[in-house]
Amino acid sequence: MALKGYFELRSPDAEEGAPVPAAGTIYWTLNIPDMTTAGLLSGPSRPLLVFIHAGISDHTLWDAQVNVLASKGWNVLCFDLFGYGSSFPSDSYLTKEPRPKIAHHDYLANLINYLHLRDFPQASSLSTPLPDKVVVIGCSRGGSHATDFAIAYPELTAGLITICSSPDGFEGEVNQQEVALLEEEFRLTQARDLKALVDFNVHYWGDGPLQEHGRAGSEVREKLRAWTTVNVSRQFARTGHMAIPYRTLGNPPASSRLTELNIPVAAVWGSFDESECSNAMRFVHKQVKGSTIQEFSSAHLPMVELPDEFNAWLLAWLGSNFRWRE
User: Fold this and answer.
1) Out of 37, 45, 255, 280, which could bridge 169 as a Cys pair, Cβ 3.0 to 4.6 Å?
2) If residue 4 lies in a helix (H) or strand (E), which one and from where to where?
3) What is the C-alpha separation between 246 and 268, in angstroms, rounded?
């Protein structure tokens, strides 16, 4: 069963208790397993799975995972980051200069608390309360937000999977060919060349920066084309994407606090992705004791490019780290 709704995001520059206009709304979807077909007990014996999408997509990045996981008895929460998909800033937020920085990890904690307090009378299959803890799973920039969340809210976090991402503050070796490509992306952005920027993103993130054009399948490329067209258009219109500033944990950054994580952690990367991501995932694995590292023969989006393989790995990882009652 799929439930959906909107969560009102409070203005990040408001004083506690002050009656101020909302900064905007966060769109969320909650998939609840059908206990009659799954034959498994969800609720407190299993953590809630929370998926955070990449900055080049929206919550539909995880479409190939949601139904599979729900069919296996997992509660699954997806949402659109502020300024992406169906999560829209308010007029009052957009007219502020400078715009307040959004702490995505903080409003995720508020969203989870909001869902815990909500009554879902239409969801008869939700026979037990939502779990108290979550496994937070993020890709690319979503992986950075997921890592910030896990560090900032250990009382809410049961596990972390960061995919093709980089923790805030990480500085690794750079590939000069990739640097040149990213400089070209900056030039296209300054020129406001929408078509060329979309083509760039489809190749860089879909095929892989140093791979042949068209390496990725047509489904991957077309999804990226659709997501990027919307996101870059909203960036140019200053209503979303990179036009929304965000705030991380600050000092010390997440890259210096990874040793605080005392939970199951997996670092995932794609063989054809940019070198910063693979270097960062190796760094996370080295810093977090007992963590898992997994490589897929993909570029930046293994969950889209190799959904069956990714899902099989994800289910195995969840099964090995979290026990539940049959």
Assistant:
1) 255
2) strand 2-9
3) 24
In the numeric block, the tokens 């990739």 are attached to 178
| Gap between the Cα atoms of 307 and 64, Å rounded | 6
Q: What is the DSSP string of 166-219?
A: --TT------HHHHHHHHHHHHHHHTT-HHHHHHHHIIIIII-TTSPTT-S-HH
In single-letter form, the type of residue at position 297 comes to: S
Q: What is the C-alpha separation between 127 and 115, in angstroms, rounded?
A: 15
Tokens representing residue 242 in the block: 């990179």
pLDDT in tens, 291-306: 999 999 999 999 999 9
Q: Which of 12, 310, 316 is nearest to 164 (CA)?
A: 310
Contacts of 110 (CB under 8 A, 6+ apart): 7, 9, 10
Q: Return the axis-axis angle of helices 218-236 and 194-201, rounded to nearest 10°.
A: 140
CA triplet 296, 280, 286: central angle to 5 degrees? 95
Contact 124, 117 (CB under 8 A): no
pLDDT tens per residue across span 134-187: 999 999 999 999 999 999 999 999 999 999 999 999 999 989 999 999 999 999
The set of residues, in sequence order, having a beta carbon less than 8 Å from that of 317 and lying 6+ positions away, is 161, 264, 266, 292, 294
Do 138 and 163 form a contact (C-beta atoms < 8 A)?
A: yes
- Report the C-alpha gap between 204 and 270 in whole angstroms: 13
- Residue 205: which of 187, 185, 175 has the closest Cα? 185
Q: Which two tokens stand for residue 288?
A: 């977090």
- pTM greater than 0.90: yes
Quote the pLDDT of residue 165: 98
Are 128 and 42 within 8 A, CB to CB?
yes
How far apart, in whole angstroms, are the C-alpha atoms of residue 306 and residue 310? 6
